[in-house]
Design goal:
This protein is of the alpha+beta class. It folds into two domains: 77 residues, Pseudouridine synthase, CATH 3.30.2350; 100 residues, Pseudouridine synthase (2-Layer Sandwich), CATH 3.30.2350.10. The chain is 15% helix and 35% strand. It has three helices and twelve strands; from the N terminus they run E-E-H-E-E-H-E-E-E-E-E-E-H-E-E. Strands 1, 2, 3, 4, 5, 6, 9, 10, 11 and 12 form a ten-stranded mixed sheet that branches. It has a two-stranded antiparallel sheet with strand order 7-8. Strand 1 and strand 2 form a beta hairpin.
């Protein structure tokens, strides 16, 4: 089950476990998801944004159509501040940086994404080194945009794929961990009703 971080009459904030879909997929075997689990406790819950199935961490859900609209507008305006932790292969040359590479769907290998400077949509990720662990590095990742698989593809493009990434990390890095080492640990945004700036945190499990 998800960990409940915060709830009030307008919103619910949860931490999704790795391996659980955010929303239902196609097929009977893909109906179990975070949204449906939250609805068992909060029947009016509506999903606002998503995390990859393999990624763990914070998601906010709205409890009414109006709060869903308000929160969705914030994400469209890129108001929320998101921070992830990841463990990547190797050690980057710098201690912090920025990746700006446009992304699009790799149609022949869906749902994978790819860098495409011509047809891709603008995507930006800022990163900062937290800890060097011999042949790997713990990074804080700050997605400025929210493209699908953005952090995973941008780290691969840097030459430092995220460990345990079965989509993008080459062998043996794809199986160097028992899960994708990517976690959405902090989310900051405006409360959709009170306007209060709120900060939520879910400790990194790896």
């Amino acid at each position: 089950m998800p960990d409940y971080i915060h709830s009030d009459e307008h919103i619910v904030v949860v931490s999704k476990p790795a391996g659980l879909l955010s929303v239902p997929g196609r097929g009977e075997d893909k109906q179990d998801c975070l949204w449906r689990r939250v609805q068992q406790r909060f029947p009016t819950a509506r999903i606002v944004h998503r995390l990859d199935q393999a990624t763990s961490g914070l998601l906010i859900l709205a409890l009414s159509a109006e709060t869903h609209r308000q929160l969705s507008m914030q994400f469209e305006r890129r108001t929320p501040v998101k921070r992830y932790q990841a463990i990547v292969a190797g050690v980057p040359d710098a201690t912090e940086g920025r990746v700006e590479l446009p992304l699009r769907c790799d149609w022949d290998n869906r749902p994978r994404q790819m860098v495409d400077p011509v047809a891709g949509k603008a995507a930006c990720t800022e990163w900062k080194q937290l800890e060097v662990l011999q042949d790997r590095t713990r990074l804080a990742l700050y997605p400025i945009t929210g493209r699908s698989h953005q952090l995973r593809v941008h780290m691969l493009a840097m030459g430092h794929p995220i460990l345990g990434d079965g989509f993008y990390a080459p062998p043996p890095l794809d199986s160097a961990a028992d899960r994708l080492l990517l976690h959405a640990e902090q989310l900051e945004l405006e409360h959709p009703v009170t306007g209060e700036w709120m900060r939520f945190f879910a400790p990194c499990p790896f």
